[in-house]
Amino acid sequence: MGSLSRKQQHELYYYLRLTRACDDTLLRLYKQGKMVGGAYTGNGNEATAVGSAYALKQGDYLFPMHRDLGAHLVRGQSLKNIFLQQLGRAASFTRGRDGTGHYADPALRIYGNVSHLAAMIPVAVGAALASRMQRQNAVILNYIGDGGSNVGDFHEGVNMAAVMKLPFVLIIENNQYAYSTPVSRQHAATKISDRAAGYGIPGVTIDGTDVELVYETTQTAVERARRGEGPTLIESVTMRMQGHSASDDASYVPGELLDRWRDKDPVLQYERRLLSHKALTS
Ligand SMILES: Cc1ncc(C[n+]2csc(CCOP(=O)(O)OP(=O)(O)O)c2C)c(N)n1
Ligand SMILES: [Mg+2]
Q1: Which of 117, 156, 261, when mutated, tests ligand 1's pocket best, judged by the most ligand atoms within 8 Å of its CB?
Q2: Which residues line the pocket of ligand 1, CB cutoff 6 A?
Q3: Among 6, 15, 136, 249, which residue's beta carbon has the most beta carbons within 10 A?
Q4: Tell me, what's the pLDDT at 1?
Q5: Ligand 2 mean position, distance from CA 208 (Å)
Q6: What is the sign of the dihedral through the CA atoms of 159, 162, 164 and 166?
Q7: What residues have CB less than 8 Å from 91, skipping those under 6 apart?
Q8: What is the pTM of this model?
């Protein structure tokens, strides 16, 4: 099993479990009417969020999207702050004026997304430029959905990062749907990562349910970025296992598709793997 120590494997498993538990709790609170605004779960995306953020080092920057709760947790965000923010409480980062992951925590170098899809890509690329100019040697890890990757800001941001060889890594979370629109209706390319060639940078498509694979792929990209060799596009393929938000029953998603992906549940998959390697006891 890869290059990870037993301690690191246990940490990955811990964060996968914690992310799933937080998501389930948020959904419950939403149903109890205790949440202001919507609830967006990352069920199915845990390995992508956790494995990628785990590849960052102290001083690096995280620019997550709305299904990346696991990345916030890996980068040290407290459960208290996460719940205050998600519930839209007065003591939250945004003082109750916004919810979900729409917050910034400069101390932890977490800059959450705004609603406008892809609008944070140029901002994250700007942070990468600042890191270079200030000789911080920090890498910027940013995320975007399959749907959001079709917005113009994607092109402007990735192109600038590529031309300037900035320390920038972009994870494209291809979870098969953008709200009710399947990927087949979003673009005609076989793989979203094929776009990387057009920018002159590496692009790779991976199984986003495999936490160690996500970690190792991101780590390679992060180290490349830190060496000054420029950005990488990582298309992490997963499935959005629940509706777009808690108010969406996702009745437009074929049941067989969900059944197929359920067998690849990122949390249970890793649990099975650790058990079979006797890295966990049941
Ligand atoms: C520019 C823009 N267009 C539309 C929306 C409304 N919207 C919010 S999330 C979303 C779907 C996003 O899909 P995707 O990027 O695949 O991310 P996912 O929710 O699947 O993780 C849409 C259409 C928006 N916020 N911004
Ligand atoms: Mg999507």
Answers
A1: 117
A2: 67, 115-117, 145-148, 151, 173, 175, 177-179, 240, 244
A3: 15
A4: 56
A5: 13
A6: positive
A7: 84
A8: 0.98
